Amino acid sequence: MRLSNRVALVTAAGSGMGRAGARRFAAEGAHVVVTDLDEGAAKETASLIGGDGGSAEARQLDVADVSAINDVLAAVDREHGVLHVLYNHAGIPGASGLQMPEDQFDFGVDVNLKGAFYLAAAAVPLMERADGKGSIIFTASVSGLVGSPFSPLYSMTKGGIVLLMKSMALNLAPKIRVNAICPGPVDTPMLPQFFGREPGANVADLMSGFMASVPMQRPCQPEEIAAAAAFLASDDASFVTGVPLPVDGGYVAR
User: Fold this and answer.
1) For position 46, what pLDDT does the model report?
2) Cβ neighbours around 187 below 10 Å, total
3) Burial class, 207, CB count within 10 angstroms (exposed 0-12 / middle 13-18 / buried 19+)
4) How far, in Å, CA of 48 to CA of 42, rounded?
5) What is the rounded CA–CA span in Å between residue 187 and residue 201?
6) Sign, CA torsion 101/102/105/111
7) Of 33, 2, 1, whose CA–CA distance to 236 is shortest?
8) 82 pLDDT exceeds 80?
9) What is the set of active-site residues?
10) pLDDT reading at 250 higher than 60
């Protein structure tokens, strides 16, 4: 119950890592504002949290829409008056390679980088009311620490998240801590999308080859990412800020 009596907002919480994080925050005592582009999926997560005995509400949110970001935060302000934890998780694989239509480039940047920037910035006034308990957590990637062999665009956006996180950590200390989780391959429905973006790609072979480079020899489970997020959100991480935390089975240790 490290997050008892705290309010947490999680983006892309309708499935996968976001859902696992929302459920873990609720299990730790937080009231969770579950957001997702798919409102039905957000409601399903909130229902699961209620079934677990936790407290949650669901809201539709397109993180690429700045006005939608402001609307959701205004609702949090009206109903709770404070935000303790922002888990800025939403992201997409984006287009692979170096040749892509401009609209696909823009979409990848809007979701992975622009949305994360505007949501974090807009949440600051609410988090400044958290009496020094504010924690912003970004989802970056190991591809933001080392180059992705599949997607320069993805590496560019996730590398940008790492430096955004460090800059905000310096800017907002000591009132708000800011960190990033850098997952390796995680066993979610999105994982095959990373390997299946090229026409005719052999997804099974590509995934198998990538897993061979992970020292732990398996993908991460969403609950393992959620455990790291719960640590960073809690007072157990009270002196941790500006850290890109790999949860990657040893991938970047090579």
Assistant:
1) 98
2) 14
3) middle
4) 10
5) 19
6) negative
7) 2
8) yes
9) 154
10) yes
d(CA 124, CA 112): 19
Q: Could you tell me the two tokens for 77?
A: 């302000």
Local structure of residue 25 (DSSP, 8 states): H
**Dihedral sign from CA coordinates of 49, 13, 146, 96:** positive
**What pLDDT, in 10s, does the model give residues 122-172?**
999 999 999 999 999 999 999 999 988 778 999 999 999 999 999 999 999
Query: Backbone dihedral region of 199: left (phi > 0), alpha (psi from -120 to 50 degrees) or beta?
Result: beta
Reduced to 3 states, what is the DSSP secondary structure of residue 187? coil
Residue 223 in this model has a pLDDT that exceeds 90: yes
Alpha-carbon distance 249 to 222, whole Å? Answer: 13
- How many other CB atoms are found less than 10 A from the CB of residue 15? 18
pLDDT at 10 over 70: yes
